[in-house]
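hey
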């Protein structure tokens, strides 16, 4: 009996080894492609030649190897990976500029980032940094934020408490202990759980790479939970875990504060997802020098060099299939005309809901396998953004290269529930949670590009249903009631900003505008105004859902990439691209990136010697 079990275990181990370390396909990380750093391009016209190439049938490259729907980082990242092994890829973007949530826009002389606020895990020669260097040929540079990089603000102005969050594997907990004497054991245990869960995420990747029958075996036998602490903690909420650690309400809030980066209040959030974010910033936080548009600007030329293209104003209205239910291309709307573009492979970065519910023919939408996937997920929370253009330098306004997480009190679950269940007009008057950051203060090139000006990006959540009645109106003319509701949000949030940043006064406000969930639907194609794709609640991180949400779809030659494949955010969407690329190229690109990181570190170490 034991011999049979041993044989089965050995066979299973050999099978897993084959898929974890498979190297049969071409390797986009085979060589270090970093080039000498070129001067920063600040002229909008020059950048727009790359970022705003409009769709025309005549611009579509011949003999395409793949079509990617959506130019967010999950789509661009995958296109670059394929381009680096000689694939000719066409990326199609419905907006008028490439980048997805990495794009920027300018109003009244102020440049605003729409989604990139800070990125972690970018120490030199670490795999994530190495991967980004390769995806941009070393042209994308990063500026570290201040330390502390986050400030957690709790309570009303008359009883406000501020807790700084420091980077550093030891400094982060050590600084917390200074603010919470007597809670050393709770802080140490929190760090132990966070690190153990966060560092076990490799098993999530494994389940998405191995064949479905093997993945199901690992899940339904319970081995996935036994072998991975990530899955063991995935079913536990942040609230449940932190409440077991301490009775101190402020410390509970500080343990939980970063839930805004994935969109679920602590009682609905998976502790494993939460752990990923805490681990992501343990070594620091960074911002792209020159602004978020630099990301797409340095990726697109690599796609073009391989014979591909990134074309905007190219709304895909459906994916084309042959009689065998194999994806063979897409249909793009050019005015009232449909233009068909063919390729042997279609990869969607448009998200699972857009892909399955809008781009598939009705008969394919109805497939049980498609409906099963849709039934396992739901739309994420709607995002609300306020863009503030200010007169004055960062010194004048008291702005630093850090972020503020502002809460009206420590009871975060109750705050969010009351706010989202409230009447929209009343909720607009009192937004209980707010992320505030100054892109201009983080970017060392800003003062030269926009002297005497500053920007502040403010982010919270809002129900899509609060704005749904205006979703079909023209984006620039949605009526007086819509504008009044937006203005109420702006006014109440501005009051919070002025109380936290006393040097910011109304006379310094030169520009203010709100982006609502239906704004997100228009500009980034989010079906319900969500900014993090499919909901990142506890159900999303069950082992069963994890093996179902994978790059391969039930339809041959159709793949998914981006944050719905892995997890949300910039790093999560890139992990989705890496996972999708691993499936397409038949090799583990995660390990390839790690190997190149080690190689470049050794080379640079020898140079220093």
């Amino acid at each position: 009996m034991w011999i049979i079990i041993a044989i089965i275990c050995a066979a299973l181990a050999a099978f897993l080894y084959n898929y974890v370390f498979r190297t049969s396909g071409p390797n986009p990380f085979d060589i270090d492609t970093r080039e000498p750093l070129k001067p920063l391009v600040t002229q909008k016209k020059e950048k727009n030649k790359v970022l705003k190439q409009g769709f025309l049938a005549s611009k579509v490259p011949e003999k395409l190897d793949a079509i990617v729907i959506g130019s967010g980082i999950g789509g661009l990242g995958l296109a670059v990976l394929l381009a680096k092994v000689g694939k000719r890829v066409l990326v199609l973007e419905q907006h008028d500029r490439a980048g997805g949530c990495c794009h920027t826009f300018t109003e009244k002389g102020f440049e605003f980032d729409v989604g990139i606020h800070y990125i972690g895990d970018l120490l030199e020669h670490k795999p994530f940094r190495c991967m980004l260097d390769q995806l941009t040929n070393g042209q994308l540079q990063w500026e570290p934020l201040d330390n502390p990089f986050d400030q957690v603000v709790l309570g009303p102005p008359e009883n406000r408490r501020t807790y700084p969050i420091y980077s550093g594997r030891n400094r982060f907990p050590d600084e917390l202990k200074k603010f919470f004497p007597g809670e050393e054991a709770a802080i140490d245990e929190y760090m132990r759980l966070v690190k153990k869960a966060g560092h076990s995420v490799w098993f999530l990747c494994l389940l998405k790479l191995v064949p479905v029958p093997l993945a199901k075996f690992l899940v339904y036998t319970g081995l996935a939970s036994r072998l991975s602490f990530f899955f063991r903690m995935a079913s536990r909420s942040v609230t449940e875990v932190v409440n077991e650690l301490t009775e101190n309400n402020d410390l509970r809030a500080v343990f939980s504060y970063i839930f805004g980066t994935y969109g679920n209040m602590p009682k609905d959030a998976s502790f494993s997802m939460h752990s990923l974010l805490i681990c992501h910033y343990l070594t620091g936080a960074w911002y792209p020098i020159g602004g978020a548009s630099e990301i797409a600007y340095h990726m697109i030329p690599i796609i073009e060099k391989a014979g591909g293209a990134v074309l905007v104003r190219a709304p895909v209205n459906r994916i084309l299939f042959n009689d065998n239910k194999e994806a063979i291309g897409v249909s793009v709307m050019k005015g009232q005309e449909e233009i068909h573009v063919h390729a042997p492979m279609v990869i969607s970065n448009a998200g699972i809901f857009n892909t399955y519910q809008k781009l598939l023919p009705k008969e394919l939408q109805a497939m049980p396998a498609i409906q099963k996937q849709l039934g396992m997920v739901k739309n994420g929370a709607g995002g609300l953004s306020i863009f503030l253009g200010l007169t004055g330098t960062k010194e004048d306004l008291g702005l630093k290269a850090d972020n503020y997480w502002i809460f009206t009190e420590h009871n975060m679950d109750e705050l969010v529930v009351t706010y989202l269940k409230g009447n929209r007009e009343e909720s607009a008057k009192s937004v209980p949670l707010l992320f505030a950051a100054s892109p201009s203060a983080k970017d060392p090139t800003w003062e030269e590009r926009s002297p005497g000006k500053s920007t502040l990006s403010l982010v919270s959540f809002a129900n899509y249903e609060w704005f749904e009645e205006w979703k079909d109106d023209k984006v620039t003319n949605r009526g007086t009631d819509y504008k009044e509701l937006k203005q109420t949000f702006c006014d109440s949030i501005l009051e919070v900003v002025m109380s936290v940043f006393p040097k910011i006064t109304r006379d310094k406000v030169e520009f203010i505008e709100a982006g609502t969930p239906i704004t997100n639907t228009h500009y980034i194609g989010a079906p319900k105004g969500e900014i993090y794709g499919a909901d990142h609640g506890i159900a999303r991180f069950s082992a069963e859902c994890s093996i179902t949400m994978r790059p391969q779809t039930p339809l041959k030659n159709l793949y998914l990439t981006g944050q719905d494949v892995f997890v949300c955010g910039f790093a999560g969407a890139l992990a989705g691209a890496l996972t999708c690329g691993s499936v397409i190229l038949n090799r583990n690109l995660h390990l390839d990136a790690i190997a190149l990181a080690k190689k470049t570190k050794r080379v640079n170490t020898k140079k220093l010697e």
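The mean pLDDT is 94. The chain has 27 helices and 20 strands.
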